[in-house]
Amino acid sequence: MNQLSKYLDVAPEVQEALDAGKPVVALESTIISHGMPYPQNVETALAVEKIVRDNGAVPATIAILGGRLKVGISKEEIDYLGRKGLDVIKTSRRDVPVLVAKKEDGAATVATTMLIAAMAGVKVFATGGIGGVHRGAETTMDISADLEELAMTPVLVVCAGAKAILDLGLTLEYLETKGVPVIGYQTEELPAFYTRKSGFSVDYRLDTPAQIAQAWMTKLDLGMKGGMLVTNPIPEEYSMDCEYINKCIDQAIEEMKALGIKGKQTTPYLLAKVKDITGGDSLDANIQLVYNNAKLASEIACEMCRQ
Predict the structure, then answer these.
(1) Cβ pair 119, 81 in contact under 8 A
(2) Catalytic pick from 28, 49, 77, 303?
(3) Catalytic residue among 163, 273, 275, 295
(4) CA distance 228 to 131
(5) pLDDT recorded at residue 248
(6) CA dist., res. 160 & res. 237, Å (int)
(7) Which of 203, 210, 240, 279 is the most exposed place for a label (fewest CB within 10 A)?
(8) Does the annotation mark 299 as catalytic?
(9) What pLDDT, on a 0 to 100 scale, did the predictor assign at position 294?
């Protein structure tokens, strides 16, 4: 930890909770800078932190600010990221050492949030949807670093499945190859972000936060590397029609190809385009599923502390 302290700042509230064995839930910051417009991004981030607190855990929003790895940031820092928006660098694992060395700001993706959370000893993380294998990856090799991080880093990730813009079948195959357990919370079917259905099966169905906590702690006790993926379906009342959202995604992908957009700009472009096509309905769904995941992650973190 002495070496890490040169680069890592853990908020006092978060460190006190970790030292006392109390539940902590990591939260990402890309959703603030790249997920939605200001001030809705800040309002959503603060609402997610409140949900974590209301369910008995301490929130730890993770970002890079002025080259410092931050585990737990203030309301003012959340507002700063929200106002700066797309000017904040979307930060994956490869970007971390350079941004730290240059003392720049970075918004933590799923992969980077896992990485920094693990440095601080935070074992549970709530997000919206993970990245994965992109459609057409057999020729583009476009595969999210999130999957590789799940294979290496001991953090449990609660999400609403992989983002629906991805190739869900190949994403599951990749996770299987890497030995990452994919758990369905009260479901045997992989949720597909905006919708509760995908046509693909998860590895295991677990029905309570206590069962998930027990499985996760067993994995840690066995010394097995890597994380665990808990897929939590979007609440029924916010779930979008599967056929409709897939048509919107297909349209967005065709427009993206025509514009020649590739790499780390792919996901922000597609999510924004789908939001425009759906008249904002997809953004509303996105916010609600993040709230739902924050609640479940907090319940799991609390159960871990009881066992």
Answers:
(1) no
(2) 28
(3) 163
(4) 14
(5) 86
(6) 14
(7) 279
(8) no
(9) 98
Structure tokens at 140: 């583009």
Q: Which residues of the chain have pLDDT under 70?
A: 1-2, 264
- Please say if 178 is a catalytic residue: no
**Among 70, 61, 58, 49, which Cα is nearest to 20's?**
58
pLDDT of residue 58: 98
Say which residues have a Cβ less than 8 Å from residue 62's Cβ, sequence separation at least 6.
Answer: 26, 27, 28, 29, 69, 70, 71, 72, 73, 108, 112, 113, 116, 117
- Look at residue 163 in the predicted model and tell me its pLDDT: 73
Write down the H helix ranges in the chain. 12-19, 30-33, 40-54, 75-84, 96-102, 110-120, 137-140, 145-152, 168-177, 209-221, 242-259, 266-277, 281-306
pLDDT tens digits, 261-277: 877 677 778 778 888 88
pTM above 0.90, yes or no: yes
Residue with tokens 């000893």: 121
Tell me what pLDDT residue 299 has: 98
CB 92 within 8 A of CB 133: no
